[in-house]
Amino acid sequence: MNSRHENVTPFYVMDIVKEAAKYDDAIHFEIGQPDLLPSPKVSKAIKDAVDDGHFGYTDSRGLKALRDKVVEHYKKEYAVEIAPEQVFMTPGSSGAFMVAYMLTLDSGARLALSDPSYPCYKNFAYLLAIEPQFIPVSEKSLFKVTPRELALVEADVFQISSPSNPIGNLYSADELAALSTYCSEAGITMISDELYHGLVYEGRAHSALEFGDDAIVINGFSKYYCMPGMRLGWMIVPKKWVKKTEAIVQNLFISAPTLSQYAGLEAFDDAHLKAVRRVFKERRDYLYGELKELFDIPVKPEGAFYIWADISRYSDDSLIFAQELLEEAHIAVTPGFDFGSFQTKRYVRFAYAREMRHLKEGVRRLKAYLLRYDRVVSK
Amino acid sequence: MNSRHENVTPFYVMDIVKEAAKYDDAIHFEIGQPDLLPSPKVSKAIKDAVDDGHFGYTDSRGLKALRDKVVEHYKKEYAVEIAPEQVFMTPGSSGAFMVAYMLTLDSGARLALSDPSYPCYKNFAYLLAIEPQFIPVSEKSLFKVTPRELALVEADVFQISSPSNPIGNLYSADELAALSTYCSEAGITMISDELYHGLVYEGRAHSALEFGDDAIVINGFSKYYCMPGMRLGWMIVPKKWVKKTEAIVQNLFISAPTLSQYAGLEAFDDAHLKAVRRVFKERRDYLYGELKELFDIPVKPEGAFYIWADISRYSDDSLIFAQELLEEAHIAVTPGFDFGSFQTKRYVRFAYAREMRHLKEGVRRLKAYLLRYDRVVSK
Description:
Helix content of chain A: 25-40%
Structural class of chain A: alpha/beta
Order of helices and strands of chain A: HEHHEHEHEHEHEEEHHHEHEEEH
Oligomer: homodimer
Shape of chain A: globular
Distance between the termini of chain A: 47 Å
Number of domains of chain A: 2
CATH class of the largest domain in chain A: Alpha Beta
Strand order of the largest sheet of chain A: 2-8-7-6-5-3-4
Number of helices of chain A: 12
CATH architecture of the largest domain in chain A: 3-Layer(aba) Sandwich
CATH superfamily of the largest domain in chain A: Type I PLP-dependent aspartate aminotransferase-like (Major domain)
Radius of gyration of chain A: 21 Å
Strand content of chain A: 5-15%
């Protein structure tokens, strides 16, 4: 029998974060959360909820008014009709993943996911004593999974994310439709992580629900809505699973944090969100423009706030590269190894979740630091 | 293979809650959360944290200042020395249970718990594909487990709670010491649910950590501190498990809700907490005094805010009894079946988590309603 926690990997970036905290002048390319604040309406909503004494639990599914907002959001953004009964508010999107995996991954079931991908996917599986099935992806497919590759693994559930952490790549409507059709035909449940929707700078993010109503969709307020510490996510489940999901969330959480739910009621603030997107796009344009002169960057990120940079012209081990970069130039990045094991020693992840001035100082320092490698740059 | 969610029971009380919501004049004995507000200092702390822009994640373990407060609390309340590294802040105590069970219940491991007990214990086990080992308890042992009974089941982990939901019974120092010694010798990990500590009206609540440092202790801010909707709990793990726990909480939660943690910093407000305890004691004294004239009550509750009432002089099925009581007298109680299957058809749980006037109206209406049963009362 597998040990639940023996395979669970701590995040290597946490060591980087701790080490970086020692330097007053550290440049933070490692941070995976927005530095921007949520809409001022959110702050007011929290204070009002405190004044109104909203310290009790909510309905396990979440405030009805908030689930209605989510329903409205899907109609407006994706022209998709869902029922409020299908929506569950969860403690972060993390909570939603745990519910989705408990719902779909019975003992012995198989979860397929790309390598690299967000590390918690595989770790949630390990914690449920499930062995993940990794689909290696590389620059050849722009790090996307296709039905052909999915067909090569045994799968009951397929975890997808678009735009993805750590790549920032976006699946097109055609690509998502093909995967959705394949999953339906093969009896595979698709779990679609749409947490970075909204933070999209080229093309358009599509919800898995546009291509079928049997996917589980997960999103939340931590990225685009700039409320990571509020720990509020949501999930949309197919109608057939509403009852089971309710029993699971009742037991697992009682309910999502109440003040966060009142905050969520005011978080769909279009003007504010548009400004958030504009800030991140400007940073993306700048940082991608600079980094592509220094590294091979196989995917120009279309969404999220990450750049997946191939550092192999400087080093054959991105963990060591990241450690040295921090020690010597006080620049923190996330080693690729945090996201999987397929060719991840070649990559580091840069996040652009700090203000332009900070990014510019980082680039300046990075350029100076990389000069030391000039002797080995030959390609 | 077991289905994770097939055995998971929804809470029957939720149907009662939904039904009760239809009656403007409903009496709420079913509610398992305090109606009192937290300290005014808590409200101020939340607003200040909003003004300070604390919308980001915290360290996965929780704010260091808050973990220090917890350390201090154990020193002051129990004369127990723990290290801040052993303390983890979690999304509710619910989150702490999930971590504790993932940590200790590998596939095939056995969880022993009393029947009846808090329903989430067994449901967490089912969700991890673990088969719980039930220890039936009755009025003969005042619903407590002894080493002799624990020895009758196969166990790797023993879940205990004191004061308990739904009984309100309290384990004495001697009883806890005996269980702690037995568990240590038998290689069983004790998980001690101490969520109702503080709400104790006779004797003194003891922490499992007073009797050994190898227990996992779980507590939180939902009951005594009157912040259920803030979803903030904590757990204390033995030093040998600190690293593993950190990897699990990083993956499972990222971190506990940030504003809730700032709230927690101000929640240990002795004057306020003393007033909270006084209010609940007054209610306990009143409601127990009245209900013991109407039902057999095997345990005078020493803590929490529940009374476990034997309704068998009126009915042989407490679920039907509860439904009829709601329909006919608009009085909501929790059927015993929510807490297990051993003799639970004989019991309902009354919560005294509403103001005295509400309790008094409930008692008045209950007395009138029970007159209809006079003809069958023969014992």
